[in-house]
Structure formats: C-alpha cells, structure tokens
Amino acid sequence: MKALAVAGMLLSTHAHAQSAGSSIISLGWLRVMPNSSSDPLFIDSIGGVPVNQSVPNTGARIKDADTVGLAFTHFITDNLAVELAGGVPPRHKITGANAFAPYGEIGSAKQWSPAMLFKWYFGGAESRFRPYVGAGLNYTWFGDEKITNSALQTQVLGSGFPNASSVSTDSSINPVLNVGASYAVTKDWFVSLSMSYLPLKTTAKIDTTLASGAHAITEAKIRINPIVAFLSIGYGF
C-alpha cells in the first residue's frame, strides 16, 4: 500500500509538469536548414536611369547555420500549449549559384525569426513520452547584411571599393508548421526534439556606389523555405 501511495504521489507531481497551468523553459541546439533558390540578379537602375533587366543564369543560395535556441511553453489545458520560440540570430553564409557559383561565398546575413506556436500534445499529462504537432506565425527580418566577395564586387556590381555596396532585405510574417516529441526524464526535466517548416522568401536590394559616384541598384528575390531542427532540454514549473 505504501508503494502504491508513493507511486501515486510521483504520478501526480509528474502530471503537474505538463498539465494545465504549467510552463516549460527550454534551451538547446537549433539548426536552420534552408531549401533555397533565387531568381536571376535584376538591375533596377544605374545612376537613376531605369534599366529593368535581369542577368541571365545567375543566382544565390543560403547555407545551413547553427545557433542557440530558446523557447517558453505554457499549457493552456493538459493537451493544448502556446509557445514562444526564438534564439541567438544565426549568421547565414550566401554562396553564388549558376554563373555566380565560381565566386563561392558572396555575402552573409543574420536571421531573426521569433515565432508563436499553438501545439497539441498527445497522451495524458502523466505520460513520459508525448508527441505533438503545432502551427503558428513567425516574423522574420535580417540584419548585418553584406557583400563579402571582392571579385563579385568588382566584376558584377561594378565597384572595386571596399564597402561600396549596402544591402537591405524585406521582413515578413510567415506561417510555421511544427512536429516533435518530448520525453520527461524526471518530473521537472524534459528533452525535446522538433522540426519546423517556414515558407519564407525575401528580396535583397543592393545599392552600389560606382567609381563615378553614381549608384547602381540591383536586387535578388530569394526563396529560403527553411526546415528548422530544435534539440532542447527543458525545465518545467
């Protein structure tokens, strides 16, 4: 009888960790894996004169990046939770594609992508292993965008001066789809692995100051569409 009573207390305590009103803070490894492609580089204008011409067979790709992820999950019911997720913005390397492939790495940018998700946990609050599915919204913007390849700067963008080009990118709100599972190691500590998908795209505008002082404005539309893996350790309270 005493053993049954102790087991009942443990189950009750464990249920509280993933039951209505409880919360979990998670920290871990986040890997952003873009499935990227782009339209050809497009020349908007040179010296204020419209050009409106694409450069055939050109393009760019976004490389994978790793960073630290952070999430706060609150259980509205035993099965329904809301989650705020983010992390240290990863820096993506950008490489040339097609005719730009020989240049290798051509630039880089930091990606900020906080998200809010509603997640449905299967099983009861007392279950150690709980798969889940989720959906929500993400807001993405980029920072510290720059051209890092001097050969591309000279041969394509038309200026050999360092820092002659400034880059700006669009921000966007995007849907997020999420699947994963958590496992209760103890009544308070959890490990979790999730995979998310974001249909994400942006337009990068490049303003280059030419030797004459005139400005050349070019742009590239890039589809990023990343899959994001998050392996984390969480503490429930």
Automatic annotation (TrEMBL):
Pfam families in the record: OmpW (PF03922)
Entry keywords, A to Z: Signal
Cell compartment(s), UniProt: Cell outer membrane
Chief localization: membrane
Entry coiled-coil feature ranges: none
InterPro entries in the record: OMP/PagP_B-barrel, OMPW
Superkingdom: Bacteria
Signal peptide stretch: 1-17
Protein name: Outer membrane protein W
Gene: ompW_3
